[in-house]
Amino acid sequence: MADLDWRALHEPFLLGCHAQERRESLTAVWPGFAESAGSHLYVAEDGDGLLGFVAVREVVGEAEVDAIAVEPRARKRGIGRVLLGRVDEDLRALWVTRIGLEVRASNVPARRLYAACGFEAEGLRKRYYENGEDAILLGKTLAVAVRDGSLVAAS
Ligand SMILES: CC(C)(COP(=O)(O)OP(=O)(O)OC[C@H]1O[C@@H](n2cnc3c(N)ncnc32)[C@H](O)[C@@H]1OP(=O)(O)O)[C@@H](O)C(=O)NCCC(=O)NCCS
Predict the structure, then answer these.
(1) Ligand 1 mean position, distance from CA 56 (Å)
(2) Is 125 in the pocket of ligand 1 (CB under 6 A)?
(3) pLDDT tens for residues 66-101?
(4) Fewest CB within 10 A of the end CB: N or C in the chain?
(5) Residue 26: domain span
(6) DSSP state letter for 113
């Protein structure tokens, strides 16, 4: 995972996709991620190994997609969509009401994936990345409502 994340971060348009400090400690961070409180980690694999992963952190009813990457050889086959679909399903079951993330304005594949999975633009962080590029803040409300005094999970 650390290797795939590192390579994904170094794709030309993605350099600096995430905070500098995380890039410097990827191999230290990932082994412990699944054990840390509120973390959700899903991987897609085939006989040759890892195809992709998504890492999500959840704090008091809200979640953030921390990282998602699919091996270049396996892209555009629906793996990213399946991974995010699983996140959606599991977080709803935990009564998480919102998922957020940030994405580079130029990262068209990721923006298409997020749009296909129901994320909408909620804001902009100007010049967030080290090359001066803006971060687009995306969010998705997981429809949990109170009806007649009860929590209701909606589609
Ligand atoms: C972004 C990423 C995870 C997408 O994974 P994926 O498995 O290829 O995505 P999917 O096959 O599930 O595609 C989902 C949707 O996004 C679209 N999409 C994916 N890659 C695309 C591309 N290169 N160009 C245009 N659309 C693309 C697909 O067409 C699909 O939409 P559709 O169902 O309406 O046709 C993958 O490109 C990746 O690992 N990129 C590098 C890491 C990265 O950018 N992570 C996000 C950081 S914020």
Answers:
(1) 17
(2) no
(3) 999 999 999 999 999 999 999 999 998 888 999 999
(4) C
(5) 2-153
(6) H
